[in-house]
Amino acid sequence: KYESYPYERMQKIREQHIVPSLRTYYKKPLLLHQGHMQWLFDHEGRRYLDLFAGIVTVSVGHCHPKVTMATQKQLARLWHTTNIYMYPAIHEYAEKLTSLFPDPLKVVYLTNSGSEANDLAMFMARLHTRNFDIICLRGGYHGGSPYTLGLTSLTSYKHGVANGFGCTTTMLPDVFRGPWGGSHCRDSPVQTVRKCSCTEGACLAKDQYIEQFKDTLNTSVPKTVAGFIAEPMQGVNGAVQYPRNFLKEAYQLIRERGGLCISDEVQTGFGRTGSHFWGFQTHGVVPDIVTLAKGIGNGFPMAAVVTTKGISIAIEEDGLQKNSEDVGTYMLLELAKLRDKFEIVGDVRGKGLMIGVEMVTDKDSRRPLPVEEINQIWEDCKDMGVLIGRGGLYSQTFRIKPPMCITKRDVDFAVEVFHTALQRHMRPPVVKGRNTNKTASEITEEENEGTAPRQMKIRTEHLYALPKA
Ligand code: PMP
């Protein structure tokens, strides 16, 4: 069926005509032909459970039939600007979308991407407050446009070109890797293995990070600021969670200085965290501006800025928020069992279907596991049919953000695959009774006597033919 698109030909086209700086995942990048809900199919008909789709764009499922039908219908009817004319569907959509927000967040402006939404949010905050400076957290990702690159605070996205004047980064309140934090500090079904000195009702880590926040406000910006932007849980940086009440107090400090609070919900919005529809609700705050993208269009280039009337002058059918909560909590707890079993699984965190699994050399030092070792586990999972994302400063965190239609059975499969990959990693593969210097993923199934049967069982179970397009 796909004879006219052989892998080698596609590879050649990519080499010759697609910018070389564009990154591909995996040693042998996947050539994909089809998607269906939580599944992807490659050119050989091999099926993969896509635990990474939600990070990229797809929230309700690859090629979800309802989304496909609605899009086809609209494309056949009218495709035009939404700003200079009126069109019923847009009005209906704006009404529906804003009904999902608490007062006074009732006005929406549609854009094409998350970067654009954050550009606009910065612009609005500056215009409204007549201040210029915006505070953001280190490790945050808010976009790749020249403005938002000032907010994005991850070295791999930074380049030596002028960008985003007036953006000041402040310390990331990371309760696993940062200097303060531990078991009681965050809102997750799984606590960290790191001990902390918090007591009932008093989070010392939060107090320390807030002191750092104040220090930034007192030293690095003028007395009044335009705003503060944060993701309710950091996405690209690997599902990093802040101590309870950190955002609440940070919002208050910003508002005392005349600034607006912006919640970047590009990754956390639309029920992803399970317990709430919006990430900011998990922190008990109401922002002044909320930015949305990715999940909003299930992969289509669509985004939005939602704000108050003052500043501006569903999807819920499939029960996906509840599924995020139920299946996400189940997955977190299953992964936590692996954390307790394997020394190199340092942290399992997150809420709903936004999960981070941070890999370390050992739990005491929390040193990131060397990237070659993480790659090996990651490639192995792919070979067994599970696609996982990556994140964190050292690429040390597996990011799990599947389409929200994923089931507990899929989770069992994914956890079994991850378990197998970890076991293979911890137990050096044996070739014909001898130890080998080859990495686990370089060993063929025949060579790998110790683990081949289990791996092959998983592989054959998950080889399926493509569904009809
Ligand atoms: N904010 C967050 C939290 C994101 O994760 C991203 C994209 N990864 C963006 C903004 C930018 O969105 P886009 O890629 O649509 O410009």
TrEMBL record:
Transmembrane segments: none annotated. The keyword Mitochondrion applies. Residues 431-459 are annotated as: Disordered. It comes from the Eukaryota. Its cofactor is pyridoxal 5'-phosphate. GO terms for biological process: glyoxylate catabolic process; L-alanine catabolic process, by transamination. It is found in: Mitochondrion. Keywords: Acetylation, Aminotransferase, Mitochondrion, Pyridoxal phosphate, Transferase, Transit peptide. It catalyses: glyoxylate + L-alanine = glycine + pyruvate; N(omega),N(omega)-dimethyl-L-arginine + 2-oxobutanoate = 5-(3,3-dimethylguanidino)-2-oxopentanoate + (2S)-2-aminobutanoate; N(omega)-methyl-L-arginine + glyoxylate = 5-(3-methylguanidino)-2-oxopentanoate + glycine; N(omega),N('omega)-dimethyl-L-arginine + pyruvate = 5-(3,3'-dimethylguanidino)-2-oxopentanoate + L-alanine. GO terms for molecular function: (R)-3-amino-2-methylpropionate-pyruvate transaminase activity; alanine-glyoxylate transaminase activity; beta-alanine:pyruvate transaminase activity; pyridoxal phosphate binding. GO terms for cellular component: mitochondrion. It is an enzyme of class 2 (transferase). Its EC number is 2.6.1.18, 2.6.1.40, 2.6.1.44. Pfam families: Aminotran_3 (PF00202). Multifunctional aminotransferase with a broad substrate specificity. Catalyzes the conversion of glyoxylate to glycine using alanine as the amino donor. Catalyzes metabolism of not L- but the D-isomer of D-beta-aminoisobutyric acid to generate 2-methyl-3-oxopropanoate and alanine. Catalyzes the transfer of the amino group from beta-alanine to pyruvate to yield L-alanine and 3-oxopropanoate. Can metabolize NG-monomethyl-L-arginine (NMMA), asymmetric NG,NG-dimethyl-L-arginine (ADMA) and symmetric NG,N'G-dimethyl-L-arginine (SDMA). Belongs to the class-III pyridoxal-phosphate-dependent aminotransferase family. Homotetramer. This is Alanine--glyoxylate aminotransferase 2, mitochondrial. It comes from Lamprotornis superbus. The lineage of its organism: Eukaryota, Metazoa, Chordata, Craniata, Vertebrata.
